[in-house]
Amino acid sequence: MQILKEKQSLKKQIRAYKQQGLTVGFVPTMGALHEGHISLIKKALSACDKVVVSIFVNPTQFDNPSDLEKYPRTLEKDVARIMEVSDKVLIFSPAANEIYGNNIVSENFSFDGLEHEMEGKFRTGHFDGVGTIVKKLFEMVEPHKAYFGEKDYQQLQIIKKLVEKLQLPVEVVGCPIDREISGLARSSRNERLSSEQRQNAALIYRILQQVQNDFGIKSASEIATWVHNEFRNNPALELEYFEIANADDLKTATDKKEGQKYRAFIAAYSGDIRLIDNIALN
Ligand code: PAF
């Protein structure tokens, strides 16, 4: 197991892998690893000769300073967790100045409108921050394949767009959402939920499953009304948005069209902890 903190040593190691003709898989993370991350790492290990996992809480993608401050940082535990899976993983865990120097700012991107939907409406600058760090990491790691969870489905679409626009030679692999037994989507933020909050948060997935059942039978607006009522009747969670959208361009869907793929999306608060989830509707 190798843990590197400097980009120069990372690049040197990557060059050595490439000179040996090895394929490189990449799993970018912000640490506080859970089973969802581990499944991405296992998937990368099964398809690539070498796997790089980055652990970096990226400051430019947080629109809320308190969210950044409270984001769990558990490097030692993360390293131990990865070791249980494989000792063949290279961990890249840089400090912020190694990535950004003294200028912790985002680049401005256009993702052809994807960035203005859902999360983009509520988290100003978030996707510029994600684009900035993923671009920087892709330039350092130069992976053949990079793995992202569908829990952050909008992020996944945006990263595919980034790769397309910059013509980066990397295959972006989207991986299914990993869930707790209750159905709650796994997230590093779940660690901050009390056991009661955690139980209540399972409602998000139950609602999404009902939406999946009803889509095509009821109209999108009837479904939206039902979802808003469910949240109103369950004050443990506060709905930020519910959206049924076209799965490719993430534009709001009003009805179901033949040959079109749709997903439903929810962002909700449990106390001050923001949770997101989504489900494929067809
Ligand atoms: O999904 C995440 O954990 C982050 O947004 C990512 C892709 C590692 C960039 O910081």
In short:
This protein is an alpha/beta fold. It is 40% helix and 20% strand.
Q: What proportion strand?
A: 15-25%
The radius of gyration computed from the alpha-carbon positions, rounded to a whole number of angstroms, is: 19 Å
Rounded mean pLDDT is 97
Q: Look at the structure and give the CATH class of the largest domain.
A: Alpha Beta
CATH superfamily of the largest domain: HUPs
Helix fraction? 40-55%
Major beta-sheet overview: 6 strands, parallel
As laid out across the biggest beta sheet, the strand order is 1-4-3-2-5-6
Q: Provide the domain count.
A: 2
Assembly context of the chains: single chain
List the uncertain runs: none
From N to C, what is the helix and strand string? EHEHEHHEHHHEHEHHHEEE
The computed structural class is alpha/beta
CATH architecture of the largest domain, by name, is 3-Layer(aba) Sandwich
From the N-terminal CA to the C-terminal CA, the straight-line distance is 41 Å
Shape: globular
CATH topology of the largest domain: Rossmann fold
- Counting DSSP H or I runs of 4 or more residues, the number of helices is 11
How many extended strands?
9
Bound compounds, each kind once, are: pantoate
